[in-house]
Specification:
Keywords: Transferase. It comes from Pacificispira spongiicola. The protein is an alpha+beta fold. Helices cover about 55% and strands about 5% of the residues. The chain has a 4-stranded mixed sheet with strand order 2-1-3-4. The longest helix is centred in the middle third of the chain and has 33 residues. It starts with a strand and ends in a 6-residue tail after the last helix. The structure holds glutathione. Glutathione (GSH) binds next to loops.
Length: about 200
């Protein structure tokens, strides 16, 4: 299997953390690409990474679908519970992590757009909406910190990779101030080898 990957992509990192946790990292060939400069729409018409290339040259996307595939393929405890209330809880946590990531990437896209064009967008309601989504999500996670504890699951991985991306792109963000319990939880979780081996950069 080959994974179209970028060292900065929080979505791609989520997949690689999953691969490490499921004992599959050695079976995945990492191909670093810049999705904005590469043409791979025959494998993913959306032009986005991560994209997992299976042996039969089929592209698998997006990050949740790849994680679900790796979770079923690998060994060890399931990261996505098959049924029941715990499954709902994990998928909800995953969605919050994904939502924080999406909001941070929306902010980053605006910075990239401003750098390409000589017409910076005003810092308007759209930017405020992204920061509000990030702040409110961190506050909710702080309040519900107990749901992030216990055996590792994809919800926890999603939240951790979202926070890692925030620290990479927006180190000035005050999320720790709004969510001190979440900050403590994150500091402990990123000691895991799978997260240490995939620290974002770029
Ligand atoms: N929902 C997708 C989002 C993937 C995504 O937006 N990846 C970014 C890189 S971090 C990308 O490839 N962007 C290129 C583009 O939007 O054209 C997932 O979870 O995999």
């Amino acid at each position: 299997m080959k994974l179209f990957f970028s060292d900065a992509s929080p979505y791609a990192r989520k997949c690689l953390v999953t691969a490490h946790e499921k004992g599959l990292a050695d079976q995945i060939e990492i191909e670093r690409i810049n999705p904005y400069e590469s043409e791979f729409r025959d494998l993913n018409p959306l032009g986005k990474i991560p994209c997992l290339i299976l042996a039969e040259d089929t592209g698998l996307f997006d990050s949740f679908v790849i994680c679900d595939y790796l979770d079923r393929l690998g060994t060890g405890p399931a990261l996505i519970p098959a049924t029941g209330a715990l499954r709902d809880q994990v998928l909800r946590l995953h969605a919050i992590g994904q939502g924080i990531t999406d909001a941070a990437l929306n902010l980053r896209s605006q910075v990239m757009r401003d750098a390409k064009l000589d017409t910076p967008l005003p810092k308007d309601w759209y930017v405020d909406r992204q920061w509000t989504a990030i702040q409110k999500s961190c506050i909710l996670l702080d309040r519900e910190i107990e749901t992030l504890k216990g055996a590792l699951d994809l919800g926890q991985i999603s939240v951790a990779t979202a926070l890692g991306y925030l620290d990479l792109r927006f180190p000035e963000s005050a999320w720790r101030h709004h969510a001190p319990l979440l900050a403590d939880w994150y500091a402990a979780l990123i000691e895991r080898p799978s997260l240490q081996a995939t620290m974002p950069k770029g």
